[in-house]
Design goal:
The model has no long low-confidence stretch (mean pLDDT 95). With 244 residues, the chain is mainly α. The protein is 77% helix and 4% strand. It has a 3-stranded mixed beta sheet with strand order 2-1-3. The protein folds into 2 domains: 148 residues, Helix Hairpins (Orthogonal Bundle), CATH 1.10.287.1490; 68 residues, no CATH class. Bound molecules: zinc ion. Zinc ion binds next to loops.
């Protein structure tokens, strides 16, 4: 591929702009996972809070059922007590008395169970309060963080658009065939598609450049690819060399 020095230098200028564009794109790409992580954290806190609320409701239901059980036992004991005087035989009287004692004991046992449940409810309420506070705090923080990230993203997008315009402004002088090679290299994971030869070595892979190849690079009349990494080689101008 026949080339000119200007064509090669215009590609170097383009690559500088592309490199700026790449780094801004990296910033942009990094934001959505951070937003997702914040949202996942908040969801976790919300689930924790919801679970704590559900636990209270479940315990309250359990308590209500036990209270109905106590009421039923009390009612049975009351009814049987009122029937005691109607009983004629001593045996029947004693049997009924035993039944009443059993019912009262059962009611007492359930009352104890209710006390345990009430303690569990107190504990569940404390847990729910803590979980709700955690959620509120996380919600507040993540709201601020989300706003910050959205602002970061929008700022980066603005810079990206400006950098893209600058990049598009320098693309014109690059010959299409050279552009094709450059794009191909970049698509293969080599964003530094065009590299200078430094002290007789490819600046990217450090391989030694043969004298005949070096002569072609110096002439800047044809496309020279590194034998090892395939990148486009160019000769850095004296001024750029001094600056580097
Ligand atoms: Zn190389």
């Amino acid at each position: 591929m026949a080339l000119t020095k200007e064509a090669l230098q215009s590609l170097v200028a383009l690559q500088e702009k592309d490199s700026v564009l790449d780094s801004i794109q990296k910033e942009i790409d990094a934001v959505p996972p951070r937003i997702a992580a914040l949202k996942a954290d908040l969801e976790g806190e919300r689930r924790h809070m919801d679970a704590a609320k559900a636990k209270i409701i479940e315990l309250e239901k359990k308590k209500k059922t036990k209270e109905l059980d106590v009421a039923a036992k009390d009612e049975a004991a009351r009814k049987h007590t009122s029937q005691l005087n109607e009983l004629k035989s001593n045996d029947a009287y004693k049997a009924m008395q035993a039944e009443i004692e059993k019912e009262k004991a059962a009611a007492g046992d359930i009352e104890t169970e209710i006390l345990v449940i009430m303690e569990e409810i107190d504990k569940a309420r404390a847990e729910e309060k803590a979980a709700t506070a955690d959620f509120k705090k996380t919600e507040e923080f993540s709201k601020k963080d989300l706003e910050k990230l959205e602002a970061e993203l929008s700022h980066a997008k603005g810079r990206h658009a400006a950098a893209k315009a600058e990049r598009d402004a320098v693309v014109a002088p690059v010959p299409p065939e050279l552009m094709k090679v450059y794009d191909h290299l970049r698509s293969r994971g080599k964003p530094d598609a065009i590299v200078p030869v430094v002290d007789g070595h490819c600046a990217a892979c450090q391989i030694n450049i043969s004298p005949s190849m070096m002569a072609d690079v110096t002439k800047q009349k044809a496309l020279v690819n590194c034998d090892s990494c395939q990148r486009i080689l160019y000769k850095r101008e004296k001024a750029a060399q001094a600056a580097a």
